[in-house]
Design goal:
Blueprint lengths: L6 H12 L5 H21 L5 H8 L2 H12 L23 H16 L4 H20 L5 H24 L7 H24 L4
Helix pairs in contact: 1-2, 1-4, 2-3, 5-6, 5-8, 6-7, 7-8
């Protein structure tokens, strides 16, 4: 296959070819979203290799197949449809797992003495982590980092804080630690929201 000197153009052309069954306006919107995502990612991660960024976006056939399936135009012979493999679709809005990872922690912080609320917070955050891991809106690397920062690290920090004598005593340090954790959660989920796939 002959390629140009511009990998982004090649990538977008491949997506455009694979999504040729889409209406022209929807196809142009898809390509514009991808181009914008690539541009934003390159600006945010100038040291990242362009090939790595394109790999994280996903295979052009998969992107096109998902767009076709969402538009209800799943054409045979495109993106795995010929083998009968189901096309993964985003059934859960990307905001749902992000809110489930952040909001319950806020309520557990505001009402720390309500045991049932702490239990519900843990359950909701676990469900949010599962939904994030199974979502089609992020690359695998983003999912792993997102779950580590929003679910694993806060849980480990809270366990160390409550079960050991490492943490300083008093309500002031606990409140400061909770506010820092909440800020990290909001920052991480905000970043995940910004880099989500269309």
């Amino acid at each position: 296959m002959k390629t140009s000197a511009d990998p982004v153009r090649d990538y977008l052309s491949a997506v455009g070819r694979e999504a040729s069954a889409l209406p022209a306006d929807r196809r142009q919107e898809l390509l514009a979203d991808l181009a914008e995502h690539i541009e934003v990612t390159r600006a945010e991660r100038p040291d990242a290799a362009l090939g790595q960024i394109l790999t994280e976006l996903g295979d052009p056939r998969t992107i096109a197949a998902t767009a076709l399936a969402e538009a209800g135009n799943g054409a045979p012979g495109r993106g795995g449809a010929e083998t009968g493999a189901p096309v993964r679709r985003g059934k859960v809005h990307p905001l749902v797992p992000l809110l489930m990872l952040t909001v319950p922690f806020f309520f557990a912080t505001v009402f720390p003495d309500v045991t049932f609320l702490s239990f519900c917070s843990a359950v909701f955050r676990l469900i949010g982590a599962v939904l994030l891991c199974t979502s089609v809106h992020w690359a695998t690397a983003h999912k792993v980092v997102g779950v580590l920062i929003t679910a694993v690290l806060p849980t480990v920090a809270i366990t160390v804080w409550t079960e050991t004598t490492v943490a300083p005593a008093g309500a002031g340090p606990a409140l400061a630690a909770n506010l820092v954790t909440l800020a990290v959660l909001i920052g991480t989920t905000g970043r995940l929201w910004k880099i989500r796939r269309a």
